[in-house]
Amino acid sequence: MTSTSQTNSTVLVTGGSGYVGAWCAVRLLQAGHKVRATLRSLARADEVRAMIARETDPAGLSFSVADLTKDSGWGEAAAGCRYALHVASPMSPSDIPGPQAIAVARDGALRVLRACAEAGVQRVVMTSSSAAARPPLGQIADEGIWTELQENPTNPFEIYGQSKTIAERAAWHFVAGLGGRMELATLLPVMIEGPVLGHDYALSVELIAEMMRGRTPQYPTPGIQMVDVRDLADLHLTAMTATEAAGERFLATAEYVSFADAAQVLRKHFGRRLPIPTLPTPTEVAAMWNSSKAFERLAWRARPMRETLIDTAESLLREGAVNG
After folding, report:
1. Rg of the Cα trace of the chain?
2. Cα 45 from Cα 49, distance rounded (Å)
3. Quick one: DSSP state of residue 282?
4. Torsions phi, psi of 238, nearest 5?
5. How confident is the model at residue 213 (pLDDT cuts 50, 70, 90)?
C-alpha cells in the first residue's frame, strides 16, 4: 500500500457530532491533521469538543455550520480542505419520515461533493453502508454487488438500504463527471459498535444496550456482522490517503457475532452486575459480507469483537445510557 499522506492537512468531516464522525475527528487529530467538522448548529460545539478531548487534544478542531438539507454553508465548510470525509447521514426517522430519507441522503451527498469539487478537495471518502451491497439470498457479497432497488419501499430496513444505495450511486456518477478533478472512495460498514464518546451514538449500539438491560435485541436475524467504530475510523484515514483506495469501494466488517455469543461475552465480563439475558444459540448464521479487499489492498486490520463488545458496554455505563 502506498500513501499520499501529508500531516497538517485540513480535513472536512461532515456530521462531526455523530458517532462515526467524532471518532474520525479523533483519529485525524491524532495523526496530525486539522479537522473542520460540520454541525447543524454551533450550540453543540462545546459538547463535541469535550467528546474529542476524552481521546486527544482538540486544539486542531474547528467547526462550520452546514445542513444536508440546505445549500448554504457547504462552500465555506470545504474551503481550504485537502480531504473530506463525508460521514453525515440523514437525520432520524422522527425527523425525516419514510421515503423522504432517500432524497435527503442523495441530495445531501451531492451538496457535499459539489462544494468539495468547487473548493479543490483532492479526495472524498464517503461512508456508505453494507446495505448498499446486499447480495442475493445465500450469497456472500463483494464490492461489485449493488443492492437491487425496489419501487416504493415501506419497510425501514428497505428504505435505509435504498437511501444508501441511491446516494452512493449518485456520488460515483457525480465524480465521474468531473473528469478526474477529484477522487472518491466509499466505505460500506456493517453494524457499527464500539465505545461511545457521548450520548449521540448510532442506533446499532442500542443492540448492546438492550442486552445490558436484560432484554433480547429486536432484530430480524439472530446475530449481526460487526465492525468497531475505531477500526472504521482508521479505515477512513487509510482510504483518504492510500493510492490504491482512489475510485474504489471497500466493505468494512470484522466478524459475525450471534446475540447469544455476545450476551455470553458480556455475562462473563460483568457477572451479576448487569442482567444480561441467556439467549438461545442460533442454528444458522447470516454473514453476507467480507472485508478481504480492505485487508489485502489497504492492510486494514479489525480488532476481536470481544474487545469491541466489552468496550462498548463500559462506555454505555460511563455515559449513563445503561444503569449498572
Report:
1. 19
2. 6
3. P
4. -65, -45
5. very high
**Taking Cα atoms as reference points, which of 234, 192, 301, 186 lies closest to residue 28?**
234
Q: What Cα–Cα distance (Å) separates residue 249 from each residue in 105, 125, 168, 216?
A: 18, 10, 10, 34
pTM of this structure? 0.95
Task: Supply 208's cell numbers.
Answer: 448492546
Average of per-residue pLDDT values in the chain: 92
Say how far apart CA 253 and CA 275 lie, in whole Å. 28
> Residue 251, SS3?
strand
Structural contact between residues 199 and 262, judged by C-beta atoms closer than 8 angstroms: no
Specify the residue for cell string 499522506.
5
Contact between residue 248 and residue 6 where contact means Cβ atoms under 8 Å apart:
no
- Helix, strand, coil in percent for the chain, rounding step 5: 45, 15, 40
> In this predicted model, what pLDDT tens digit does every residue of 231-250 receive, in sequence order?
999 999 999 999 999 999 99
- Alpha carbon distance 74, 54 (integer Å): 28
Q: Which of 128, 136, 130 is nearest to 172 (CA)?
A: 128
CATH superfamily name and code, 10-319: NAD(P)-binding Rossmann-like Domain (3.40.50.720)
